[in-house]
Amino acid sequence: MKTTVSQLLQSQGQLETLIEFAKEKKNIDTIVKHHINKEEYKEALEKIKECKEPEVVKQIVNSNCHIFMKKSPGERDTVPKKNKRNRGYAEFSEAEAGKEYAI
Prior knowledge:
Blueprint: H1 2-11, H2 15-24, H3 28-37, H4 41-50, H5 54-71, E1 82-83, E2 88-89
Antiparallel strand pairs: 1-2
Helix pairs in contact: 1-2, 3-4, 4-5
């Protein structure tokens, strides 16, 4: 249902309502995408750092890391670093999800 409501709000151009709905439902991915679309990369990174769910952090970083590297190189030390051993992102515990990592 969350996806359907989000799609409906987006298709109707109700972006502010969509963001409020995403905040209420703690949909960090939608909020991060909104900040990226507005070229607010620092705010997007802040939202990622606030996230306490390691799987959500990994998913968002995997899908947006290339954008942060290109558009916000001065802030890239706040993006979780890639684990060279398995060519994927390092496993994070709940306590580590909001921490900063150097790349």
